[in-house]
Amino acid sequence: MKCLGIEATAEKLGIGIVNIKSEILTNITKYKPLTTGIHPREAAQHHAENIKDLIKEALQKVELSFKDIDLISFSQGPGLGPSLRVAAVAARTLALKYSLPLVGVNHCVAHIEIGRLKTEARDPLTVYVSGGNTQITAFVSGRYRVFGETLDIALGNLIDQFARTANLGNPGGPVVEKLAKEGNYIELPYTVKGMDLSYSGLLTAAKRALNNYSVEDVCYSLQEVSFSMLVEVAERALAHTGKEELLIAGGVGVNRRLQEMLNSMADERGSGFFTTPENLLGDNGAMIAWLGILEYTHGKRMKPEDSFVRQRWRTDEVEVLWR
Amino acid sequence: MKLIARGAEAVIMLDEGEIIKKRIKKNYRIPLIDLKLRKKRTKREARLLSIARQHGIPTPFVRDVIPEEFTIRISYIEGETLRDIVEKLKNIKEIFHEVGNLAGKMHSGNVIHGDLTTSNMILSKGRIYLIDFGLGEINESIEAKGTDILVFKKSVRSTHFEHEEEIFDAFFRGYLESFPSGSKVIERLKLMERRGRYFSER
Ligand SMILES: Nc1ncnc2c1ncn2[C@@H]1O[C@H](COP(=O)(O)OP(=O)(O)OP(=O)(O)O)[C@@H](O)[C@H]1O
Ligand SMILES: [Mg+2]
Predict the structure, then answer these.
(1) Catalytically annotated residues of B
(2) Which residues contact B114 (CB under 8 A, 6 or more apart)?
(3) How would residue A173 be classed by pLDDT, with cut points 50, 70 and 90?
(4) Domain B2-75: which CATH number of 3.40.50.300, 3.40.718.10, 3.30.200.20, 1.10.10.10
């Protein structure tokens, strides 16, 4: 059995093909380099213009055709409405055209499952950090429960918005990480609320600090403060849930300093520490395809008329049938 | 001295019938952040435990504060955290009505707890004690109170999902009883939930 997965929740468009033995046959991603923040309609237009060719490319790369595909899955939510609709429409069309079953899957759960697949983590607390999401989840009684999350903007969004203000280009993460190596600490606001956190005050203060301090100092301090906050709530969630493994998922997970800090915390607690492989950290089609296989082989079926997009689909609304 | 609990940020020891809570060093964060947070929270916790008590909230008595050692000495509350016993409580409505009542009293005195979860509530001889005020503050804004309740709601949702409705129901009744103008906080809370991604509209 082979599943073709379509990912389109934000600015990236991803196509992946995964088989039932959980081998990733192909996984390609395309996006328009951004100069400003994400424009939902422009992103969707990019996806709509490229999706046909990207699917063709994905198939050709491994010399497959639709005859070889047994299942179509797509990112049904959460995410930006216009992007989600491109994925849903394409998936529905392909399913009808080639008489294939269709499943819509949850993007956040896909990040968790691809991490579990490609690491030794079995029952981790997952720290999922990306441009649009910052959440700390663990599996309890049939669902991935959300123990902590941002009360306003996501960690990736914090870094990207700051980087744009500082004219560091987009995406800002790698540049901020590099500049941070040369910086010294200046004080910035640190805001955690139990297992939740808030980054909007930190963003305002960091932008303002650019007037008085070097960009290196602000980058360094922004990382130290925002990551410390995240690690703190992750530790609180580990203590609270009693889980003994920690898994990083999501695009911000490539940051070495963040990895180092989470690793250090896990070590101090005697917990296992795992990072999703770098090529699967960011949004990608393979994770959607893999979750499609998990869902489908555990009984999930979807009628085309139920394939509407779910912009605010919560992680803990998904019934996890495969665990 | 006997170690009785290892929280996320502190070790809790029992010494001659009293609790010593010491915030421990975290090597993942730089010393400048680590030292400042631990000192600030130590002082804050001592101060807020006492202020909350003045507003009629059962809290441990503060016997001593040593900010340089990130340590407070407080009275020992014998009992179990609500987190550990919710699932076997027979009077869950009554208990959370009381929790709501305490939260209302706290907020009417502008005390924000900062980590309002069932891990930080101890049921002792029929009374509920609130502990762990290190993330708290004095703040009269509706926003701060709304966030305090949001944190509570979210933690109930992730941890006591089988009793979610029952708990919220009882909690809000109790909250409004002791804090009538808390209706403004609840309105704000609804707004925050709609604005954020916390609860999908169903
Ligand atoms: N005064 C007290 N009397 C009895 N037990 C207490 C007392 N204070 C704390 N404890 C126990 O120790 C545990 C941890 O305490 P506390 O919540 O203050 O620490 P913490 O490290 O700040 O917690 P967190 O994990 O929320 O960061 C409590 O859940 C409770 O079981
Ligand atoms: Mg606690």
Answers:
(1) 115
(2) A193, A194, B133, B134, B135, B136, B137, B148, B151
(3) very high
(4) 3.30.200.20
